[in-house]
Prior knowledge:
Blueprint: H1 3-19, H2 26-31, H3 37-53, H4 59-70
Helix pairs in contact: 1-3, 3-4
Amino acid sequence: MTKEQINLAGRMIKVLQLAGQPGMDEVAIKLNCGLTYDEQKRAEMWAKAFEIAQKGGKLFDLAAELLHETA
Length: 71
């Protein structure tokens, strides 16, 4: 997955979250749909988790690998 794809996926999730908040209209959502540093890092961690999970294996071994890869 490329950085652009990860960023786009993170922004898609953020748009859905913003749309569920009271008072958020289309303009407010568009103005706030960029990712913060923490949101970008979270999106990157999810992408890495999906990549690692595709290999299969034991949960705690995979979680340790994810920790090592994202540290």
